[in-house]
Structures are given as C-alpha cells and as structure tokens.
Amino acid sequence: MAALTPKQQHFARCVVDGMTLSDSYRNAYNASRMSEAAIHNEASLLMAHPVITMRVETLQKAKDRAVVASAVSDKELVLTELRRHVKEADTDSNKLRAIEILGRTVPGLFKGEAPAAPERTAEEIRAELAEYLAEIDNQVH
Questions:
Q1: Half-sphere exposure of residue 18, counting CA atoms within 13 Å on the CB side?
Q2: In whole angstroms, how far apart are CA 89 and each of 33, 70, 74?
Q3: Over the Cα atoms of the chain, what is R_g?
Q4: CA-to-CA distance for 69 and 76, rounded, in angstroms?
Q5: DSSP 8-state code for residue 17
Q6: 113 pLDDT exceeds 70?
Q7: What single-letter DSSP state applies at residue 33?
C-alpha cells in the first residue's frame, strides 16, 4: 500500500481528534474555493480510501490505549495517595475520611445489604406466626 501524503496524514489526525470529515478536509487541504458539497464529497472519498481508513483506525486505537493507560495511572495514583493518608494522616478525622473514600472503591462494601433470609414454606411461616401469636396471647393474660 502507498504511503500517505502529509496532507492525508493531517486529515487522518483531524478525524481522530474528533473533527467532522468536512472540517478535517478543510483543515488539511486548501478548500477556500470549494463549495460545501464539494468539500463533503472530497472528504467522504478521502475517508473511503483504504490506506486512510487504516491510518485513522491505527491512530484511534493508539489514542484509546493512551486514554486507558492514563486512566489506570490516575486511578493508581489516587489509590496510592489514599493508602498513604490512611497510614500517615495527621488527624483521626482525616484518616477516617481516607478510609471511607478508599472503601468506596470496593464495590458493595458500604451497601449494607442484609443477608438473604432462608427460604421457608408457607406452612413453616404459618407455624411460626401461630407460635408468635400464642406467645403474645400468654403475655397479655
């Protein structure tokens, strides 16, 4: 496959940066004398070119990897700092706050979900209620 020209590379970068195809075309090429329809048509043809499409996909994957790596790095930094505050906080209040924030990173830790009640048959529930009512009746008399 042929190498991309500098203008084609610029067009691909603009697309990956989130510009519309037409804006990417305007940014990469001299389109001052072109109609909007012509710009749109040329941008669409350019994007349909297999080498450009592949370059856009490659750039997008690299950008996505960088975003994920940055997010992971930021999360690790925050968790490391929270752990440090748990160990080295100057006041108990700050230490507890760091523990609380750190605990929120653990799914379900603070939900306070009650354990599931054991399954009982209708007959077992009826017997339990009768026993409870008899107990109440004995307390009243």
A1: 2
A2: 65, 27, 21
A3: 32
A4: 11
A5: T
A6: no
A7: T
